[in-house]
Design brief:
TIM Barrel; Rossmann fold; 3-stranded parallel sheet; 288 residues; 10 helices; alpha/beta; elongated; 3-stranded mixed sheet; 8 strands
Length: 288
Amino acid sequence: MEGSGEDTYLGSLMAAARVKGYQGNLSDLNIIACVKHYAGYGGAEGGRDYNTVDISERTFRDIYLPPYKAGVDAGAHTLMASFNEIGGIPASGSKYLLNDILRDEWGFKGFVVSDWNSIGELIPHGFASDLKHAGEVSLNAGLDMDMESRSYITHLKQLVDDGKVDESTIDESVKRILRIKFMLGLFDNPYAYCDKEREQKILMTNDIKLASLEVAKRSFVLLKNEKNILPLKKDYKKIAIIGPLANNSDDPIGGWGGLGDSADVTTVVEGFKNYVDDEVHKYYFKRM
């Protein structure tokens, strides 16, 4: 749901394309692209995204890092640190990831945001003793923005007073964030993206629907087309549509559908009804 598959080359191309599509040249109210989840998110043991990643440096650099590098090279201005740890060090507390590779090797000038409470997750990873310590580790590692753990807003002043974090380190993170906000024009017009009239004008237009349909058509991968059954002919006498998603109007929106409305979805069953002749018998089986 949050990745582009396991092929490194394809993932790199898609990362670059998405950055260019979302962000463009920051004109016409484009948004800032955030490349996530940096890094090794797909290699967590047992498929659990908070879990351990234990891979070689070669595998990490050859298989996992290239799509992130492609996103940075395409101009992405933000990255999100992942939940997982790599070789015992959580991504949100890894100076190696956030500074040595991202900034020193790749020349990244934007800012890094945590995943949801990933700073707090340093505690169950066994890498920080409490939330205050987690904030100290993450900020010193190069993590600029804290999403949800509230470690920074609660503890950074005391960490400076205690000499655990240099004020100049905070200044640098703040500069990175403000620089991007200036680029977006948010200080000139902070409500530029809150235009209901524009929303109603451009969302769910025929052009957008046709473009989405074309993307869907091009993304299909058919492993076997036995007896050339596809594309379906309209003169079949009987068609069986099988599976719990066949007449489902919620899941096609996706797990991050935002304000997507199931009323706008044409289910597979409805699509068949619209496509084939009325005299064709259609059977829908929710379970085998």
